Amino acid sequence: MGRKLDPTNNVKRGPGKKARKQQGAETELAKFLTEEETGPKRLSSRGRKRAAKRIQKSAEVTEKQPKKGFTDENSKWLKPAKRKRKVDEPENEDDSDERWEEEDDEEEEEQELLQKKKDQGKKKSGKVAEKQVEEEEEEEEDDEEEEEEEEEEEEEEDDDDDEMVDDYGTADDGDEEAAEEGEEEDSDGEDLLPIERAAKKDKKLKEALDLESDEDDEDDEDDEEEQKSDAEMDEDDTIQTNTDEGERFRLPGAEESEMEGVTPLDLKSIHQRIKDNIDVLCNFSSKREPGKDRSEYIGLLKKDLCTYYSYNSFLMEKFMDLFPLSELVDFLEANEIHRPVTIRTNTLKTRRRDLAQALINRGVNLDPLGKWSKVGLVIYDSSVPIGATPEYLAGQYMLQGASSFLPVMALSPQEGELVLDMSSAPGGKTTYIAQLMRNTGVIVANDANADRLKSVVGNIHRLGVTNTVVSNYDGRQFPKVMGGFDRVLLDAPCSGTGVIAKDPAVKTSKDEADIRRSAHLQKELILAAIDSVNAESSTGGYLVYCTCSITVEENECVVDYALKKRNVKLVPTGLDFGTEGFTRFRERKFHPSLKLSRRFYPHSHNMDGFFVAKLKKFSNVIPTAAAGKDDATEAPEETAALNPPEEKPTQSNKTKKTEAKEAKNSPQKTNGTANIKTKGKKDSGTGPKKAKLDGETVKESEKPAEKKTLQKTTRLEKKKGKTATKAKNRMGKNKFKKLKHMLTKHDRE
Amino acid sequence: MRPLTEEETKTMFEKLSKYIGENIKLLVDRPDGTYCFRLHNDRVYYMSEKILKLATNISRDKLISVGTCFGKFTKTKKFRLHITALDFLAPYAKGFGVAAKTTQECRRVDPMSIVVFHQADVGEFIRSEDTLT
């Protein structure tokens, strides 16, 4: 606030904006002050005395810390550990201390836990006063702490002066402590009974052990911090020893792993171990344990991540492949929390400005979504349910995730177009398309699931969309139903690895088979979608493929498959933010244009995981499977010759026959051309035989080749003339022999 | 999907005219094209002719909805108007005069009487989502 709080000074509030806005520090603080009433308490006379003593003692403590023992005659019964604070009231302390010492044995075990966690120095400063307070009234707030401290006081009798030196008590090693305490004890041993001495020693040993081991922190956080700060101070003091000791991250041995399987999970330590592990892996050469290789660290990390975030091993493997370690934890954390709620203004009925105003009046806290969207609003919090406002029922907006805006923006449908939405439920994208088209043109909203189509119909009617036809087909059959669309949107069903925040069941339920099944279905769907697009469309010819998954198998692989199988190419999506798609991933390489596709992640873009790719179809021709019969080695004339022979199957058999007859009848005259043709035919017809033929034709002279070609042609023609023409095309045995005979004669000549 | 029969058309237009009077013509002959009513699964859909052409490609059992649903014919062939028709009727609506007893009076009424006052219920979009089609 910057202004000193002066409650007595009533600031006059003048005209102007600021005076209205800022009511003054006083009113702001008034909200808090009511809670903190305990500040200046009214003390009784005793209380005041005690407070004075407190101040005195703290002053004395600072003075007397360096002293270890007392040199005056009180050294016998004044024990330095206690007495430093309690000089002014030796009597009370004496009695009380001795009393409490007797109780030591009984209370030992209870208090040890508390002991470790508490800062002993801190307690000591408050000890005296608190003691007094406890005895009489309990004015302090933290009663629990007091009681604990009470009990612990006698335990800490033997605590070091060293600890009193630093308020944060450097507990270097339990051993040192114990030793020092032992020394002190011996010097003060007179007052303690032997059994009490032994008990104290035991306590010290236990302390030392406990401090070194890891334990859950169930008590005050202060103690945690202090312990950590203890550790830090240790590190500062003894850096060299740290590198040698177990301070550095070490992989647990086999026994420890087994232990972990049996003992109840300790999430905090697992979390710490994850952090340490990542730290080691990032600076592997410097921080590794010699003898342990990278895979061991990674194996442990994977196991820990699976336990901590509840994933199954398969998914965790996938994510570890996708993200570098630094991003991996961010991504996993982002999956634990929900993305902000976003809504889309329905521009058919209202404007964003007006809608925002109306919702604010209802008590909704919102903001525009970002500069990339003119219709999106993000809801921070709301006093009314967002899905039930009158504005919602009147169809002025739609609850929609921010990532779902993207594919429609990429599609950018124009007015008057024919658009297909192949997988439209629950209808958010369909209605967005409709509002971009201003209710012109026609949209076909399809979905394979009839139940989910009800929500599509509901949303369409609610938002006032009039140009839509809703159908219930399996997307793969759509080309048969109708085609020739200007634009197609395919939001393919997927494994949902990008929306784990919405559906945590994905973490454990998805495995290799699921991903493969999804990918297979997506490949079929994308081919059907491509076949539904009309490449000759004057305004379009575009397909947008998107999924809410982040795995490569369902995204880049599917698009790459489509690029190979159809006459499509990738074009820029028009979205200027987002990560580029992969052009290669591990052992797979994709078409370089894949970098025009976009990936979105929850941890980097604060929206659900998403993938968007925009394809343009440039030809309606479907590349046939004949591409599999490679004619790469053939000369162009043969390929040219190929075309007529290829077309022959479509023609009537007669023409084939006549050609074949021609080839037969004029073996000598038109050998050259016929041979080429027949060769061509041959090649197109008989794949596996081709190699043989080629070899043969290359090696031998033409005439035997002719023979063979003739032979082959007959065989070929048999193949092509599938039905009754076979008999006619065939040469009779005798005739054939004659011909052969003739040719051999020719050869010899 | 089939065009409405004479009877069905009559019933429906009668219902509509209660709200918009003679302006039914305006619904059919619009500046941006001709619109028509078609019947599919006992429901009346209102759509432009362009959509009609495309919708004929879709087989009857796979077609869920076309354009806007105005309402449906009940089993006894009465026509019930749905909330989804609101947007189209509103511009042509005749001034409504509704006479009703006040809520105060409704409180004082005897225990056996029924109080119903239903004009238009925007909540139907969500509540009756399953029955919109």
Automatic annotation (TrEMBL), chain B:
It comes from the Eukaryota. InterPro entries: NIP7_N, Nip7_N_euk, UPF0113_PUA. Residues 1-83 form the 60S ribosome subunit biogenesis protein NIP7 pre-PUA domain. Transmembrane segments: none annotated. CDD domains: Nip7_N_euk, PUA_Nip7-like. Pfam families: pre-PUA_NIP7. This is NIP7 nucleolar pre-rRNA processing protein. It comes from Amphiprion percula. The lineage of its organism: Eukaryota, Metazoa, Chordata, Craniata, Vertebrata.
